[in-house]
Design brief:
The protein is α/β, with parallel strands linked by helices and 429 residues long. The protein has a domain of 289 residues: 3-Layer(aba) Sandwich (Alkaline Phosphatase, subunit A), CATH 3.40.720. It is 34% helix and 12% strand. The strands form three sheets. Strands 7-8-3-9-10-6-11 form a seven-stranded mixed beta sheet, sandwiched between helices. It has a two-stranded antiparallel sheet with strand order 1-2. A hairpin with a 2-residue loop joins strand 1 and strand 2. Helix 5 runs parallel beside helix 14. The relative contact order is 0.22.
Length: 429
């Protein structure tokens, strides 16, 4: 325990901000926010909350490139999943969690979030959880998309739907998402006046560092560096350029200026939102269902949706698997980022997070819903039974997975959607 920490009972409140002209930056949890008396007694008055992150990739998968092999605790990841090898002890790969009905792209995102292919979605599982754990945060839930709006169907553009069946707002602009987290109202005029949000909060930051413990100074330094890294990435994206339309501009105009950078930025923003407790529930659309994006930065030529119809075409199959492997690598990057963000007690943001990645279709070309590609990840305090390949021979409905997570976050529900129960062995008792 540091001397300056013991000198006062309450140094700063739990929900503290760095404020400047047009800037309001929520701080991560710090040692300095906990009463010294309580700390001395071994008590924690502000426990670090558990978070839920949902990451969706459209167009399904090639089952041959996806399916893991081995036993529950001794397993090998497939070509698509190999970027998760450094995190084998942190993941749960699900197999045979299914929805038997043959669907389409337009109903696949609701299927991923509710377990049923419904073009008029019910409340999604993340919002059921958000109603339980998101009432005291800046945002009850935080929705991002790395892709622009697809005009063909409303269900192609949002993962999250509230209890009235209304789509939750999805932020697709990285700068605006950053502004929502760190600039209050995100006033464009203020943005032009200061080159960095850190410039606007230099004085309160200096004052806070003088009062902070050694551990807190490390957390604050990491936080400021992380914010600035995201800020610089967004500035580079905005300076880089132009929108290159695809063949069919009406259906889906995609910004290919620097898609890998934008994807990483969106993932980093989710991590920062968790770290600062701006939200405890977040989702990110990594690729829309029926996305027409061409992953030319991978050397690919076919658009993503077309390559999902890879049957009898080895070239398309290779492109499709390469693209899917890249999306998994971005999910792996999100895990790595959350592991790098440290809490005041030495744990990481990832330690307290439950992350779900996958698609609402299994076989991309056949539009099937059987054996959905679902991977979950979580750290030491997540409550997941990680380091496992969980095969369910009777093919339980995907809604069983969602109900399991709903109950894991403290919501007392007997049923959700078309659930028939919960998934065994997914969560710790």
């Amino acid at each position: 325990m540091s001397q300056n920490y013991m000198s006062q009972n309450y140094m700063v409140p739990r929900r503290s901000f760095l404020r400047g002209a047009g800037v309001c930056m929520a701080l991560p949890a710090l040692e300095i926010m906990t009463p010294a008396v309580g700390r001395a007694a071994g008590q924690t008055t502000t426990p670090i909350p558990r978070r839920l992150g949902v990451f969706h990739k459209g167009n399904g998968i090639d089952p041959e490139g996806w399916e893991a092999s081995g036993t529950e605790t001794e397993f090998c990841l497939s070509r698509n999943l190999e970027s998760l090898n450094p995190f084998l002890e942190d993941v749960v790969v699900l197999s045979n969690v299914s929805n038997q009905s043959k669907g389409d792209h337009y109903g696949a995102m609701p299927l991923f979030m509710t377990g049923v292919q419904n073009h008029h979605p019910q409340q999604t599982f993340d919002q059921v959880i958000a109603d339980q754990i998101g009432t005291s945060t800046q945002f009850k839930s935080f929705q991002l998309s790395a892709e622009p709006v697809d005009v063909r169907s409303t269900t192609l553009n949002s993962l999250a739907y509230d209890s009235e069946g209304r789509a939750r707002f999805v932020e697709r602009n990285a700068q605006f998402a950053f502004d929502r987290l760190f600039r209050g109202l995100g006033d464009a005029g203020v943005r032009e006046e200061i080159s960095s949000v850190l410039d606007a909060v230099r004085e309160p930051t200096t004052a806070l560092l003088k009062r902070a413990s050694r551990l807190d100074r490390a957390v604050i330094g990491n936080y400021l560096d992380s914010v600035r890294d995201v800020e610089k990435a967004i500035q580079r994206q905005e300076a880089s350029g132009a929108v290159r339309p695809h063949l069919n501009e009406v259906e889906n105009v995609v910004d290919l200026a620097d898609f890998p950078s934008k994807m990483k930025t969106m993932m980093d923003l989710v991590a920062l939102a968790f770290w600062t407790d701006a939200t405890r529930v977040a989702s990110c659309i990594m690729a829309l269902e029926s996305s027409r994006r061409i992953h030319d930065f991978l050397g690919l030529k076919a658009d993503f949706h077309w390559s999902s119809h890879f049957e009898k075409n080895a070239t398309l199959a290779n492109e499709f698997n390469t693209a899917n492997g890249w999306y998994v690598s971005q999910f792996a990057g999100a895990i790595a980022k959350m592991k790098a963000l440290k809490e005041y007690d030495g744990s990481s943001v990832f330690d307290h997070s439950v992350l779900m990645f996958g698609s609402g279709l299994s076989h991309g070309g056949q539009h099937t819903g059987s054996n959905l590609p679902i991977v979950l990840a979580g750290g030491k305090q997540s409550g997941l039974n990680t380091g496992r390949l969980l095969r369910y021979p009777k093919q339980p409905p995907h809604a069983n997975c969602l109900l399991t997570l709903i109950r894991h976050f403290g919501v007392q529900r007997e049923h959700y959607s078309n659930s028939t129960g919960t998934l065994e062995r997914l969560c710790q008792a």
